[in-house]
Amino acid sequence: MNNFEFKNPTKIIFGKDKIANLAKEIPANAKILMLYGGGSIKSNGIYDQAKNALSAFEVVEFGGIPANPEYAVLLEALQIIKTQKITFLLAIGGGSVIDGTKFLSAAAVYEGETPWEILTGGKPILKGMPFGAVLTLPATGSEMNSGFVLTRKETKEKLASGGPALYPQFSILDPQVVSSIPEKQIANGLADAFTHVLEQYMTYPSDSLLQDRFAESILQTLVEVAPAILKNASDYNAASNFMWSCTMALNGLIGQGVPQDWAVHMMGHELTALFGIDHARTLAIIAPSHYRYNIETKKDKLAQYAERVWGVTEGTTVEKAKAGIDKTEDFFHSLGIKTKLSEYTSDYSGTAEIVSKRFTDRGWLGLGEHRKLAPVDAAKIIQMSY
Description:
Elements: E1 11-14, H1 22-25, E2 31-35, H2 46-53, E3 58-62, H3 71-83, E4 88-93, H4 95-107, H5 117-120, E5 131-135, E6 147-152, E7 157-162, E8 170-173, H6 183-201, H7 209-231, H8 236-249, H9 263-275, H10 279-293, H11 295-310, H12 317-334, H13 351-362, H14 375-384
Parallel strand pairs: 1-8, 2-3, 2-4, 4-5, 5-8
Antiparallel strand pairs: 6-7
Helix pairs in contact: 3-4, 6-7, 6-8, 6-10, 7-8, 7-11, 9-10, 10-11, 10-12, 10-14, 11-12, 13-14
């Protein structure tokens, strides 16, 4: 196990009807900007619960944050923060709304020329406006981590940033909200969380026994609850385990002291930027090909995964590794998620070359846990994913 330091300051408030606790978590004199997405919170009761809880506060609203948080849209919110003298941000939504709020937290106090530099500067964010979250869509783990991803349509870019200043002060997780989520989005959440774990686990053995078991237990839980939550989103027990698994998949714990990959996400982000494909579905497109392409360096961990998560007991290490990849792809299919780029767009020709050039231009010359996955390798993986 590698050396590590771990601190996660986010307070989690988990359970039924916990949105009513909002007022206790926000400074009494705060002027709040409440941020949300397309307005589903107004039809499922969450908006009313939040407004009732915040009745003693001055609240300004900003809705319409899209599924892939868009830079231009968030600049409009940034103007409101500055002109209305906002002092506290409240994200009510899934990963996109929370990610957008993290960007705004950093941008609100940014002193550089343009807020886009927050994503291109390559430096951790060390200061930001305080914010909290009410999670409405389990998937990204953004409610308990300090990272975010942003899209810029005009340049067809999707970039990531983050830092210690961007942990939510608190996040409220009420599994009852899952009952109003469309089946497609639940499937996306399952695939997203599953791949988050794989990115921190599917590397090479590092004698991190407990971290491996943590990761495997989350994967097993997601596999177990997937059929139940897809069948009945109102199943509170299934929703609880689904929601907490998504949070635990990317709150930093399972990645401590272990090598991490994240190449699947880097390639997947480009597919979202180019074609607008749901983030989770881009991961399902890339992951199987990524593991097949890198089977030689990942075979030991893939075989362990096949044994412990899927119960594959027969065959050589390579045979088990291949079975583990097949099981992963089968799992995505069981969620109703297609795993080939050509199943999402007919305009896929040349995608590999575009992504390879972008990686080269950005200086991303060595991705993956060994930092040896070159842009030409990324191109080959994407071609395998056509």
